[in-house]
Predict the structure of Twitching motility protein PilT.
Amino acid sequence: MDDVVTAYFRFYAELNNFLPPAQRQRRVAHTCSRDASVKHMIEALGVPHTEVDLILVDGAPVDFSHRLHDRESVSVYPCFTGIDAATLPRLRPLPPERFIADAHLGQLAKNLRMLGFDVLYRNDYSDAAVARISAEENRIVLTRDRDLLIRKDIVYGCYLHAISCDAQIAEVIGRFDLAPLVRAFSRCLNCNGVLRTVEKTAVEHRVPHHSRQFYERFYECEDCAQVYWEGSHVERMRRRVAQMLGAAGISAGG
């Protein structure tokens, strides 16, 4: 039929996790309409476009808008880390270092904030709200929902293959090369605002009496005005930070 073509697809590395077992790690023929874009076919096969960093058609790089022709060979690669980005014909610019987590990832959002990363989160975010905010504010969507990442208005996203929170943190830090950007205890755990040092006299009326007696260093969130101080809980939080960084392969001092 003139309106149908057959293209041969091969997906690499973790992209195979989105495919049926019989289609993994091999070249597989797929039929599609003659005017189908390579992006449409990649997502029709189950791989969100946010997880793809390089597409080669018959060995030459193409973008998502490429229209497929009969008998073309399509090689699809995941997001690369640990190599010189300038040598790759990436499908999109390097992403911002700002995130929005879907409604199921509250613990991840809180822990990333503890490490100093800008992560929006609310437990009542709808998928539509996550996609809209991501597009409006140029944020990377963090999710385990493949269907969410297929929304066309989402440019940057990260499908989390890991289940445990520490493994997810390691996945995010590794994928976006965030290790040099860790600034623990620089953000509000409640609202994501930036913390600033404040004089004790400016906030002591909002601090419990025993804390006013024993502590001198205080911080205030620039957005919600939550007051923080280095109480007995800080040592526990430092151990938590060391645990998260260790899981990501980063020394606590690095």
Notes: Helices lie at 38-44, 106-114, 127-137, 146-149, 165-175, 200-203, 209-214, 233-247. The chain has eight helices and twelve strands. The chain has a mean pLDDT of 92. The domain at 4-87 is CATH 3.10.20.30 (Ubiquitin-like (UB roll)).
